[in-house]
Amino acid sequence: MPLTNLEKYKLVLASASPRRQQLLKELGLEFEVRPADVDEFYPENLGMTAIPEYLAQLKADVLVQNMADDELIITADTIVWKDDKVLGKPADKTEAVTMLKSLSGTQHQVITGINLQSKRKKISFHAVTEVWFDELSDQEIDYYIEKYQPYDKAGSYGIQEWIGFVGIYKIEGSFYNVMGLPIHKLYQYLKEF
């Protein structure tokens, strides 16, 4: 395995996201899943890239106080940024419809903040992906929400699902970042850890 520098660590992914777990497994890494349960609130004065980095650090802060000497904790948070505000996870169908209508026919950013932390070292970084949606009909939005229940996804959508196939016509940046983990950038930082 190329990441031999990580052999001295027990990796911990502080996320219940099945997408993040799948992407990390695809790197060939073995890790424990230990979700960090935090209220995802942040200071209002934070900007687009600072918000997910702050939230990733918040998740790390919960776990590092009890971490073992040989553990490396990976935390992440992903936001959708549109018109200078965060589109978080929708609370219900009405909110999901509103979010998807606001994304329809427009461009937005997906930002993931990552925190890598051991007892001796810490690295924080982020990745930004520009995403362009085609116009979505009310029928398409309703179909997607009913079939895929995107209530655990920032911005009410998953790029790897039906709506990504039919609605997203262009991205600039990492596809995997839109799924919740900028895997190429993460790999580069893990090589240096």
From TrEMBL:
Enzyme Commission numbers on file: 3.6.1.9
Biological processes per GO annotation: nucleotide metabolic process
Annotated catalysed reactions: UTP + H2O = UMP + diphosphate + H(+); dTTP + H2O = dTMP + diphosphate + H(+); N(7)-methyl-GTP + H2O = N(7)-methyl-GMP + diphosphate + H(+)
Cellular location(s): Cytoplasm
CDD domains xref list: Maf (cd00555)
Similarity comment: family membership: Belongs to the Maf family. YhdE subfamily. Belongs to the Maf family. YceF subfamily.
Free-text function comment from the UniProt entry: Nucleoside triphosphate pyrophosphatase that hydrolyzes 7-methyl-GTP (m(7)GTP). May have a dual role in cell division arrest and in preventing the incorporation of modified nucleotides into cellular nucleic acids.
Protein name: dTTP/UTP pyrophosphatase
Species the sequence originates in: Mangrovibacterium marinum
